């Protein structure tokens, strides 16, 4: 668990040197529109989703998670800094697509390996801890970018190149520190393995509670467009470009601080309660982005927005792990990530179209309404469908 957290920390430090600046780079340097930003980010996430579905299935079939995890981090770390030499939005799109292929390769196997590494009673806390490390890297990255821009006065493209350093370190940690784990529930005192006759399929038989919860999550995702739009909205409200990395830092500091308590609360209070609370807060904050009109509003909303991730990210992944047998977790996490990624494409494109046509406030109001609808849908799922499975591989 600690090794996986360290890998995610370093990877996000690399990624987030670029991420908060990329939408502004696209719009101000390469002349892209909000719609183009949505297509690039949504398309990249959709491709990652399809790869996650396949990689999760394969990791179940092969009973090996680590090779896919290492390969995924290596691909992304190699291609990500190439944004520094991009001369058009189409080139950025190609770079982002390959980057997301790497993300897709590692996502589902990593989550399945993490679920197998801890006791079920502490699963929410474990996923929360992993997300905390991830978000910690995500505020280190923008701080590096801020120092490079504000104090060292480096060009934007040079800042992007620096992302190669933490990316390379993440690959080394994944290669030498992450240990393979059997598919069973962490093997406390034993090493359970998959039954030899069990052959995972791409469309496995999974509990109806899993599909019902996933349906609500997809609906929520349709209103949860790329955070690049939050950066563009902050710029509209008057936040200077040079301070955008600091704004991103504030967001991820809160995400990191909220992730472990949020995951632990889901262990005590139930997954659905935390997810519903997070989605309701999300709807409220998106309404706030719609009505905001001053720079300080952006700072306040960004900070509060981080709390929603603490309540939902670890809780959602722990819920997936709870609802399916251990031997099916790779495929289940593949479907989970695939659904989120595929829904992210129409979500981001639609958000960009509404932004360009009717303005940013209407786009954020649409996101708030979809979040409220998804909350009602998840609350309506029968309680018995969301009971943790006791079935072992």
Q: How would you sum up this structure, described in words?
A:
By secondary structure, this protein is mostly helical. The protein has one domain (2-181, 207-386): Growth Hormone, Chain: A. 75% of the residues lie in helices and 0% in strands. The chain is built from 15 helices and no strands. Helix 3 (34-62) packs parallel to helix 5 and helix 11 runs antiparallel to helix 12. The longest helix is centred in the last third of the chain and has 30 residues, at 329-358. The protein is globular and about 50 Å long. The two termini are 21 Å apart. Residues 183-200 have low confidence and may be disordered.
Strand residue percentage: under 5%
**Major sheet characteristics:** none
Which structural class is indicated by helix and strand composition? mainly alpha
Please write the string of helix (H) and strand (E) elements. Answer: HHHHHHHHHHHHHHH
* CATH superfamily membership: MFS general substrate transporter like domains
Give the oligomeric state: single chain
Mean pLDDT figure: 83
Write the layout of secondary structure elements.
Blueprint: H1 2-18, H2 22-29, H3 34-62, H4 66-79, H5 89-115, H6 123-151, H7 156-162, H8 164-176, H9 208-222, H10 228-236, H11 244-269, H12 271-291, H13 295-323, H14 329-358, H15 360-379
Helix pairs in contact: 1-6, 1-8, 3-5, 3-14, 4-5, 4-8, 5-14, 6-11, 6-13, 9-14, 9-15, 10-13, 11-12, 11-13, 12-13, 12-15, 14-15
